[in-house]
Amino acid sequence: MPAADAPPPPKYGRVLLKLSGEALMGAQPYGIDPAVAAQIARDVGELQTLGVQTAIVIGGGNIFRGVAASARGMDRATGDYMGMLATVINALALQDALEQQGIVTRVMSAIEMRAVAEPFIRRRAMRHLEKGRAVVFAAGTGNPYFTTDTAAALRAMEIKADVIMKATKVDGIYTADPLKDPTARRYDRISYLQVLEQRLEVMDATAISLCMDNRLPILVFNLREPGNLRRAVLGEAVGSTVSA
């Protein structure tokens, strides 16, 4: 019989955490705030303590955004490759923060750069997770024209994750941007089709469609609230869930 103070078993055994590059900025206008990276690492450490296998996909918008560069006249593919390299910088920063918390971490890149990261090999990634290591997937899918949202959906399915946990600065999915529209209503649960039909900015349409085709749930929650990641994994009412 379990001890009275034993925590409940986690709802998810293997998760993919999707972080935007902007999540690492904190209050800064650009770059990486080490204090924010450390807080994310502590949150991931709580999952590791629960025995939850944790993979992370991180964006690069705090350093470079290919779409924005394309709008200013740069070749889109070139801009996207530059954005992928920005995600590798963020992945290395996050790896350092995680390892300072005592979490053994591997960075796996879709673009080969063996001096700083392992190449992405699906079976090796799954083996790292089974051994209790955190895995940070960098360089998106390795292809231009695909976002890190799509990379998150793809990697989550490849490693057989139970859920994508999309970290944002608001506490779920709303009918409109709650920071601009005070009348916006929050959804506790919403279907993939509703997200696509209402053009809600949860993840891009390719990522949502991939998740819908493979029945992979997406949990959108506020990363800035310490402990939210742990609460969500334990099945508490945190954020909004996108499912069938």
Describe the overall structure:
The chain has 244 residues and is of the alpha/beta class. The protein has one domain (14-243): Acetylglutamate kinase-like (Carbamate kinase, 3-Layer(aba) Sandwich). The protein is 36% helix and 19% strand. It is built from eight helices and eleven strands. The chain has a nine-stranded mixed β-sheet, sandwiched between helices. Strands 7-8 form a two-stranded antiparallel ribbon. The chain is globular, with a radius of gyration of 17 Å. The protein starts with 13 loop residues before the first strand and ends with a strand. The mean pLDDT is 94.
Number of strands: 11
Low-confidence stretches: none
Structural class: alpha/beta
Can you count the helices?
A: 8
What is the residue-mean pLDDT, rounded to a whole number? Answer: 94
What count of structural domains? Answer: 1
CATH class: Alpha Beta
CATH superfamily: Acetylglutamate kinase-like
Sheet with most strands: 9 strands, mixed
The CATH topology, please?
A: Carbamate kinase
Radius of gyration: 17 Å
The global form is globular
